[in-house]
Amino acid sequence: MNHAASNSLVIAEAAKCIGCKACELACFAVHNRDNGVGTAVGTVTMPVLPRLYVIRTDSFTMPVQCRQCENAPCAGACPVQAIRQQDGVIAIDAEACIGCKACALACPFGAISLYKAYSGGAELPQPLLQERRDSRLQRKTRITAYKCDLCRNTELPGGSAAGEGAGGRGSSAAAAQDRNPFPACVAVCPEKALRLVEAGTGRSRSLNREGGTF
Amino acid sequence: MPSSEPIIHIDSELCTGCRRCAAVCPVDAITGEPGEPQTVDAHRCVICGQCVQICTAYAPDHLEASDGLKAKRLQRGQLPSVREPLFAAYSTGQALEVKRALADSALFKVVQCAPAIRVSLAEEFGLPLGTLTPGKMAAALRRLKFDRIYDTNFGADVTIMEEGTELIGRVLSGERLPMFTSCCPAWVKHAETAAPELLDHLSSCKSPMQMVGALVKTYGAKQDGVDPAKIYSVAVMPCTCKEFECSREEMEVDGLREVDVVITTRELAHLIKDAGIDFVNLPDEPFDSPLGLYSGAGSIFGVTGGVMEAAIRTGYELVTHETIPNLQLDFVRGEEGLRTATVQLGELELKVAVVAGLKYVSAVLNQVKAGHCPYHFIEVMGCPEGCVSGGGQPKLLLETLRKTAYQARKSSVYRHDSHQQVRKSHENPAIIKLYKDFLGEPLGHVPHHLLHTTYQSREKNVSPISAGRKGGKL
Description:
By secondary structure, chain A is of the alpha+beta class. Chain A has helices at residues 22-31, 73-77, 102-106, 175-178, 184-188, and strands at residues 9-12, 53-56, 61-64, 83-86, 89-92, 113-116, 118-119, 122-123, 125-133, 136-141, 143-146, 194-197, 204-205.
């Protein structure tokens, strides 16, 4: 069987998950540098919008995120072709998304959510629609579908550490060096409950090295 | 915010029971079943706030719509303008009270900042980890309408004068050794709870914050010609336990609170944002004189080993009457939980130890109890890397950045020291003048009245919080 074209994915082991939500927070942090989110909680001026969700039942907790389906039903359901196969990931083009919710309904895992869109940490207005808020008409906030993109094209937040010999990699360094070598959720999980299953090889990588990769 | 209430809390509506807070708590004060909301044992809790730093269980956005988050912010003492997410583990804040006081023109508002604030405050405004901003911090405090911008580092220099003299006296007489530092309120509370029989081993010195508080309402008031009763004394600290310390009943001078209120680094950032101040583009401004002038030795109190290094710089010269050959004492720098060294001070072989993180202190306490502790002087800081990693410091979004963040803040502290013209406490001209004009000799009558304190046993069944009292003006 030829695996060469299959997508990587992140999966979790329920038996290891302690439900701390560090993965959700890290996911939000690395995806919102454009919204001014730095290293500190104090830089956050918008709601925490993760692209994976720690679910809880009576007997276990575990994070659930997009499986990067090979024949992605979300893409099939999208009326504007905003969901595409791109560099081994099922990616949503936030600009093209019309917020119709078809993808969220089509997803067998509940891995897609629709949230308000933010720019510079503030709600992004919808160009045409208005709604009545505080007894007057205001521009409606734009809504976009969000889901796991395996942290492709995300960067480490906060830029370089200012201290000498701090070991932090700088924003001034080559951008490629700033890319996350692991999805942020995998890197931060204190219990190593998440792992990246790599495309084609069937190999899985968890963060088992001392000191982490960030 | 009444001080009889505990300062550290875990919100049972938000706690997921992951127990990472329990794992990081150095005194086993957090109890509960996995998967269930945890509770804090206020008696054991040393208010270090490490649980606040590690907690990642945040309030979901939909609470905002139901006004649930607004109610929680108010309950936590946060300004309504704060936008950041709320986490299950938190410390109650005093920013609302400070904002009210800043608008009161009848008060003479004085502020002091701990050494570790200037290396971390900028992180709250998106600047790189550990960015050093003493000048912008002073400028921001001036724009917040504080009348005097003073510095805890000045108090650190005074501490070295008093504590260094005390140590030399104790070593020469062989009494009550080893001597422990007493700057860290979490350590002091832990000693009072876990080892009350060893309290006479603690230095009698108040912390640098309380020393500055005492001097602000005496020496500072005289310099400015201000009625001490009109002074509102604020301290900005990297520490969640400092609010507890300032409300201890011993911490008053001539019937007035030495420090009226403490806010954390994070709360100062909230106040700056609330006032619409563009922190990143502020000019560098100086601190006010005389209680804002400090040496490099004062500034390194913010890292583990800093008090020790500052004390040795001065102690060496007081004992040997010679200039210390090297100011950078690498043998006390580092990050291990317990570091030890032997320092030759003339004919005296001084054995020292540095404890970073309260979980490492019990072995040392057991040695002292058993009577075979080999050290003369032991620095203890409650937090893992000293005050740079305090519970009131900027909270990281990514656990993976923690090491880098602490390293960057530490490097900044040391860089700040190395760029100071005066790097020894006893050579700080403002300190020399303070002793000449006001205090007299270290450990003399006036310092004894203003700068030294006593401790109290907090053995079981004594409510630790009710022992303190708050005398705020508002």
